[in-house]
Each structure stands twice: as structure tokens, then as C-alpha cells.
Specification:
The protein is mainly alpha-helical. It has helices at residues 42-54, 63-70, 90-96, 104-128, 134-158, 179-193, 212-224, 226-230, 235-245, 285-289, 294-298, 312-316, 323-328, 406-420, 424-439, 451-462, 468-474, 501-506, and strands spanning 8-10, 15-17, 75-76, 162-163, 176-177, 270-274, 309-310, 329-330, 332-333, 352-353, 382-383, 401-405. The chain has a two-stranded antiparallel sheet with strand order 1-2.
Length: 518
């Protein structure tokens, strides 16, 4: 018998627990690490840092994803005939932008952010006192700070103001930190860690890690939206950050779908990834979007939910010959492979995914001004950006989610060049590189670009990737752009989300955002 310092990894609760224990030294034990060897091998380091990285799974395709896409102009989860997806009216509130502090989807997204920050703090505190090699410890701690900075960035972007806790041992109730101070923290953290992070960004061992490329890309994102966050634009700083990413060896993959197929870990375009697998779960976008009969036509087995769909005008903005349209959206008749005939829904209607929604004027929804009501089961284009692997049998998908892609670097830099009014030739070339990859030729290239063309290209390139709300706000479209479900102007205060009632009840030091009931 021998005493050990145990590090037990509890993924479900994201906890790291230290305690003495007895072990049989003849057995191969994976959850006990001698103090002298603690954090010395790649496997041990991975087990320590894994909970921090695992929090990134909350970015897609759960509440966090739905809130960001549905508060923009990209997606909607309509109430289906029979009441499916009414869900207390929370999906409706995101589309009508009538959400309050009671909205469960927004609460879920808030909890994702808080869990991400807290878990990073906990992992940081464990590794900080470990016996890890000094240089390796510095890099590992830098990675954790990078992931934490990502979650603080999301807090700043979505809620503007919120609690900033940097020490896991601090159990006092935090006060609200202003958006300006959150901005300063994220920029400072990323600048401090960027040169400590690995720069072998396209190697397999760097996949799924917070690298130098991830740090500079997140900096570019922060600078791109700096005018929204602080009132002061940072277009040149965004360009400079993009230029640093361009030195690191990423490529625009020749085939667009390389970024979304079931083995997309091979992509050299991905900058920050969330690795998924059928065994460990994770990517369930097929559950969230497909009609109950769609999997049969697509060659796999899964009990899907018939939920999130694309907004009609978003899909209609694509050129019909843009391969990204069909590559992003499942549209049209869905055929039974056994008969070749169109499936019939449980309501006796042909399963044809129309772009438009037909709102059935039920009296029970009259209180919503005619903007909301049940729609047919088949209405709406569905997400098929991440390739559905044939033969799946009631599993999650293998396709990883790429939080940042190199294509975004091209379009961020192009946007900033346009905003600064300089070097339109370079801006046009950057946009055309993305278009040429999509179309397979230069036939659809622009001779020059303006802000509208860059914005539209972002829509075509990044459908379903979580940028809709942020891009709308930055482009000045959030208040004025309307949809069939929301044919009215949105008050500006709704650019920020309400702090959930549960957070306010649990922490009296928090201050609700303006416009929302405390």
C-alpha cells in the first residue's frame, strides 16, 4: 500500500478532486497519479486540462447555439402542428425578441458561459500547484487562460456586463463587471498568453487545443466588434491580428465540405475545434433539425426532433448556383428510398421542406399579434452543413465543430479594409478567394467589394456557425432588419440579453441590464 495524491476526473460535474488512497501496484491504474509524476506525461496533462476544453462543447448545438442564431436572422424553431417546440414559448421569444429574464434558453446559454469560466478557474488552480515541468506548465496555463478568455468574450458579447471571477478559491459573490472592463480583460489576457502558446497549429497534436492561432483569431474577433463593445473601432488592430494568423500555416481548404464532413479533423482551415465522436457524444445537430422521417431518406437511424430550421429570406439570399446553398440546407421533397415516393407526414401531408412557413392562424396564438402560430411539420429548410454519415445507428455525429475557421480571417480582414477605405483590391481578392473555393471557378468573382458584399459573403459562408446575431449588430442591422415572424423594429437595448432570474436570485450583487425587469 502506498499513499498517492489522486486526481480523479469527473467529466459530468467537471470536478478535480484530490485525496489519499490505496492502490494495488500490480494493476494498471488510470485515475491515480503519484505526486512525483503528477502532470508529467502527455496523458496526465490531457486528463488535467480536459474539463476546460470540454466546456467548449456547450457552444454547439445546444441553447448557446440556438440563441445566437435565432436572435439573428439565420434560424427559427417554430411551433409545429400539435404543439411541438412550444416549450413554454421560449423559442418563440428568441425569434420575436420578446425574451425576458425568465427565458430558459437564455438561462442555458448563461450557464454555459458561467460553467466555462468556473471550470477553467478550477483547472488552473489545480495545475498551478502541480509538479509539472516549468515550461510545460506555462504553456498549459496559457491554454486554460485562452479558453477562459473565450468564455469571458462570450459573456461580453451576449450580456455585455457580468461577473468576472478569476480565482477559483474566491467564494465571495462577485459584482457586475462592466463591458469595458471585460473587454480590457480579454485583450490583456490574450496578449499575455499568445506567445506562450504552441504555434504548430496545423499538426494533429495541436488539434482541439487553444493555440497561438486561436489567440490571435479571438483577438481579431474582439477588435472587429470593438466599436460595439467600447464605442471605439479597432479596425487596424483587427487587420494586424489577422495578419499574424496568416503567418501560421493555415489554408483555405480546396473543398469547402472538408470542414464539415464526418472526419473533418483533417481540415487545415480549422483554428479552434470542438472534437466530437459517436462514442463520447456531442454533435447532435441531426437531432435538433431533422424531421422524424428525414433520417430514413438520408441513410441512417435516429430519433430526431423536427426543430430548428432556416429563416426563408436567409436561404433565398443565396444564388441558386452557389453550392453552399444545397451544402447548408436540406430543402425540397424527401423521398422514401424503398418506394421512390415522397414521404407523408403523420398529418397526411407530403414531406417537402419548403423555404417558407405557413402560419396556421390558431386562436390559441392570437395573443402574439399574428406573428406566431403553429406551422406544418414539414415547413422550413433544415441544417445539413455537417455531412450526415450513412449507416449511423442511433448515435451522435462524428463531425467536429470548428469554432473559428481560416475563412473568417479572410472575411474579417476584408471587412476592416473596406471600413478603413483602403486597399480595396486586397479586400476584393480575399472575398474572391472564398467565393472561388465555393463555386469552383472565378466566374462569380467581384471586381470590387463594399460592406454589403462582405456581409452577404459572411452569411453564405457561415450559415449555422453561430455568428448571425453578432454580425447583425456590428453591421447595424439588428434593430431594423425584419423577418416574417418579426415585422417590426427591435429596441436597441435587446442587443444585450437579460441576466437570468436564477443568477439574480443567487447573487444579489449582480445588476440587471437596462430595459429588463430586475
Amino acid at each position: 500500500m502506498k499513499k498517492y495524491k489522486i486526481v480523479s476526473l469527473l467529466f459530468g460535474a467537471a470536478l478535480l478532486i484530490s485525496a489519499p488512497a490505496c492502490t494495488n501496484l500490480d494493476e494498471e491504474v488510470y485515475d491515480t497519479i503519484p505526486t512525483s509524476d503528477f502532470g508529467q506525461t502527455p496523458e496526465q496533462i490531457q486528463s488535467l486540462i480536459a474539463p476546460a476544453y470540454k466546456t467548449l462543447r456547450n457552444t454547439f448545438p445546444g441553447d448557446f447555439f440556438c440563441v445566437n442564431e435565432q436572435l439573428g436572422d439565420m434560424a427559427v424553431t417554430p411551433t409545429r402542428v400539435g404543439g411541438d417546440w412550444w416549450d413554454g414559448g421560449f423559442p418563440m421569444e428568441t425569434s420575436l425578441r420578446t425574451y425576458t429574464k425568465m427565458n430558459n434558453w437564455i438561462k442555458g446559454a448563461w450557464n454555459n458561459v458561467m460553467d466555462g469560466m468556473s471550470t477553467c478557474n478550477q483547472v488552473y488552480s489545480t495545475i498551478e500547484v502541480s509538479d509539472m515541468d516549468a515550461d510545460l506548465k506555462a504553456q498549459t496555463l496559457a491554454e486554460i487562460r485562452g479558453v477562459r478568455a473565450f468564455w469571458v468574450y462570450e459573456l461580453m458579447d451576449m450580456w455585455g456586463n457580468g461577473p468576472l471571477v478569476k480565482d477559483f478559491k474566491d467564494v465571495s459573490l462577485p459584482s457586475t463587471t462592466s463591458r469595458a472592463d471585460l473587454y480590457a480583460f480579454v485583450v490583456s489576457e490574450l496578449n499575455e498568453v499568445k506567445d506562450l502558446l504552441r504555434d504548430d497549429v496545423t499538426t494533429s497534436s495541436a488539434y482541439g487545443k487553444f493555440t497561438k492561432g486561436a489567440a490571435y483569431t479571438l483577438l481579431a474577433k474582439v477588435y472587429l466588434n470593438a466599436e460595439v463593445y467600447t464605442g471605439t473601432p479597432q479596425w487596424q488592430a483587427c487587420i494586424d491580428a489577422c495578419d499574424e494568423v496568416m503567418k501560421l500555416g493555415y489554408i483555405i481548404e480546396p473543398t469547402w465540405k472538408t470542414n464539415f464532413n464526418s472526419q473533418n479533423q483533417s481540415s487545415k482551415e480549422s483554428i479552434l475545434e470542438v472534437p466530437y465522436s459517436a462514442a463520447s457524444g456531442g454533435n447532435y445537430i441531426h437531432n435538433r433539425t431533422l424531421h422524424y422521417l428525414d433520417p430514413i431518406a438520408l441513410g441512417f437511424t435516429k430519433g430526431t426532433w423536427n426543430g430548428i430550421s432556416a429563416m426563408p429570406d436567409y436561404v433565398k439570399a443565396f444564388a441558386d448556383d452557389d453550392p453552399r446553398k444545397e451544402g447548408s440546407f436540406l430543402m425540397g421533397p424527401i423521398l422514401d428510398p424503398a418506394t421512390g415516393e415522397v414521404f407523408m407526414t403523420a398529418h397526411g401531408r407530403p414531406l417537402i421542406h419548403t423555404l417558407d412557413f405557413t402560419i396556421l392562424k390558431h386562436d390559441s396564438y392570437a395573443q402574439y399579434g399574428g406573428y406566431w402560430g403553429e406551422v406544418n411539420q414539414e415547413d422550413g429548410a433544415r441544417c445539413q452543413k455537417w455531412t450526415f454519415e450513412q449507416g449511423m445507428n442511433n448515435t451522435h455525429m462524428e463531425n467536429d465543430y470548428h469554432i473559428f475557421r481560416y475563412a473568417d480571417i479572410y472575411l474579417m480582414k476584408a471587412e476592416c479594409l473596406v471600413r478603413l477605405g483602403k486597399d480595396n483590391a486586397t479586400a476584393t481578392s480575399l472575398v474572391n478567394t472564398i467565393r472561388e473555393r465555393a463555386y469552383g471557378s472565378s466566374d462569380h468573382n467581384y471586381t470590387s467589394v463594399d460592406l454589403e458584399k462582405v456581409y452577404n459573403e459572411r452569411k453564405f459562408e457561415f450559415a449555422w456557425e453561430g455568428f448571425a446575431r453578432q454580425d447583425q449588430i456590428r453591421m447595424g442591422q439588428f434593430e431594423t432588419a425584419t423577418t416574417m415572424f418579426r415585422p417590426y423594429v427591435t429596441p436597441k437595448y435587446r442587443e444585450l440579453l437579460p441576466i437570468p432570474y436564477t443568477a439574480l436570485e443567487n447573487n444579489i450583487n449582480l445588476t440587471q441590464n437596462p430595459g429588463y425587469a430586475n
